[in-house]
Amino acid sequence: MLRKKKDTNDVQIKSASTRSGRKSLVEARGHIRPSPSPTPKRKTSSNEKRKTSRIHLGRINYSVDCNEEEPEPTGPISQYDFFTAACCGKMKAITKFLDDGGDVNTVDSCNRTALHRAALYEQTQTAELLIRRGAKVNRCDKLNNIPLHWACRGTSFDMVQLLLNNRAKVNFKDKLLNTPLHVATRVGFTACVDYLLECGAKINEPDSEGDTAIHDAVRLGRHKVVRTLILHGADMFLKNKDGKTPTDLIQSWYNNVKDAVKQAELERKRKELNAQKLADEMRESSRFGEKLAVNEERRSEKSSEGLLTHGKMEEPTVIADKMENFQEDGVIFFKGGSNTN
Predict the structure, then answer these.
(1) pLDDT grade, residue 319 (50/70/90)?
(2) Is residue 315 over pLDDT 70?
(3) What are 81-99's pLDDT values in tens digits?
């Protein structure tokens, strides 16, 4: 019976596997162990993408240098670049995207179009171009906001006027039943409030909490808006779902301000008392330190005059008499005898 001859490589592999784990079987064959594959990471977007996708959280400062001319786009314009161009007012990029067959009403993850973004960032020329190319003026996002809501947040009178001239619905409500008048009131956009009322905005329309525009203006302290709403006939006796009228809110606001002023005054007095107490403590500590310094000085003066023994001062001659031995002229005298060096 023929026996299979052992391969020398198998012997080397076996000997390598019996070692203290420093080499693996793959290393014994002369190959390099491949590095473990990296853990798949979650796909992340750039900061700019995250910013433009969170417009509802706040307004990002997109600025375009007026002296710098916009370059001609060379390649195709992506949807993200199209939205960014709408925020920045880059007309050539927008035109390139639309000429290449892009949809002017394309939406992002929040169902917002380029017109929503242009309305928020006060890009009136961009909005005019988008409307001419077929942008829907009353297109809703996920919160049921139309571009007119965002124009009121952006505080651009020209943008509000442009959208209303293109048949934007002045009394359109979002999911919280807020009209553009509610939004303009909350941001303190007095000129927009006046213009919306002239265009037919319902002044006493309630939101989901029963608050009208005058409720919001009083609660937020928008004094100019309150005056404008009263001149246009806002009802000061309408109750919200909490049973509060704007007059009640004014009284409540007055009481809150009064309590806040009183609390601030008490806090100021408390701080003054604490400061006075601290000053008194420091003054007492300084007096105590002065007393210690005087006592130390007196003690040093007494010790310089003589030796202190049991708390009493004695003359040096008395102390010398009490000494049992002393040295004089190289001879040490002891009690009862003498010894010479």
Answers:
(1) low
(2) no
(3) 999 999 999 999 999 999 9
Name residues whose C-beta falls within 8 Å of residue 67's C-beta, 6 or more positions apart in sequence.
Answer: none
pLDDT digits (tens, 9 = 90+) for 100-121: 999 999 999 999 999 999 999 9
Give pTM, 2 decimals: 0.60
Residue 132 domain-assigned (yes or no): yes
126, 225: one domain: yes
Whether residue 100 sits in one domain with residue 118: yes
| Alpha helical stretches, state H, the chain | 8-17, 25-28, 47-52, 79-88, 91-99, 114-120, 124-132, 147-154, 157-165, 180-187, 190-198, 213-220, 223-231, 246-305, 316-322
Between CA 116 and CA 93 the distance in angstroms is 17
DSSP SS3 for 8: helix
Q: 110 with 220, same domain?
A: yes
Residues shown for the chain: 341
In a domain, 11, yes or no: no
- Is 268 domain-assigned? yes
Long-range (24+ apart) CB contacts under 8 A made by 106-109 are 106/79, 106/82, 107/141, 108/52, 108/53, 108/79, 108/83, 109/53
- Mean pLDDT along residues 143-165: 95
Q: Following DSSP, what letter does each residue of 145-173 receive, concatenated?
A: --HHHHHHHHT-HHHHHHHHHTT--TT--
Rg from Cα positions in the chain = 45
| Residue whose C-alpha is closest to residue 199's, from 172, 230, 164 | 164
State residue 34's pLDDT score: 43
Cα separation, 23 vs 32, whole angstroms: 10
Please check whether residues 274 and 194 belong to one and the same domain. Answer: no
Domain that holds residue 275: 246-305
The CA distance from 341 to 327, in Å, is: 11
Report the pLDDT averaged over residues 325-332: 48
